[in-house]
Amino acid sequence: MFIKNSEILLKGEIENTYQDIADIKTKMQSWDNLEAMLEECEKRQNIYENLTKNRIDYSQILSKLISLIPEETTIISLKIDESSCLIINGYAPYNRYVAEIMEDVKSIDDIFDVSLGFILYKEDEDKSSHSYYFEIVAELAED
User: Fold this and answer.
1) Model-level pTM greater than 0.70?
2) Closest CA relative to residue 61, chosen from 115, 109, 116
3) Burial 28-38 (b: 16+ CB within 10 A, else e)
């Protein structure tokens, strides 16, 4: 009887041990899943950080551009075309203002080339004053 009870007790312990091993395996699998999920999250975070780091801040470019425009110059329009060029149209009393704007625009981050689209001398009808209508093209860095 003592041996029988010992055998039953040992069988119970063996079954408990097998159950503990099965529980440990289940927990290990969930840890593997957690590690995989953590790796996936880290990959996504790296992608997001790379995208935001390399992104052009258009509001910063426009703020800087506006601060560089001389008071005597009037900007009529600012636009970004399909080829990622910032197009600046405006009037200036002297062509040297247009040249100054072009030089200043070169100093803005994310702009790598500046060219003159055109400049047109215009006199008022009564020929009492004049201005230069211009277009400046600034190529933006790749987004």
Assistant:
1) no
2) 109
3) eeeeeeeeeee
pLDDT, tens digit, for every residue of 64-106?
999 999 999 999 999 989 888 999 999 999 999 999 999 999 9
Q: What share of the chain is helix, strand, coil (3-state, %, to 5)?
A: 50, 25, 20
Largest interatomic CA distance in the chain: 128
Rounded Cα distance between 65 and 101, Å, is: 9
Give residue 18's pLDDT: 78
Phi, psi (5° rounding) for residue 131? -155, 170
Alpha carbon distance 76, 116 (integer Å): 16
Residues paired with residue 135 on neighbouring β-strands, in sequence order: 89, 118
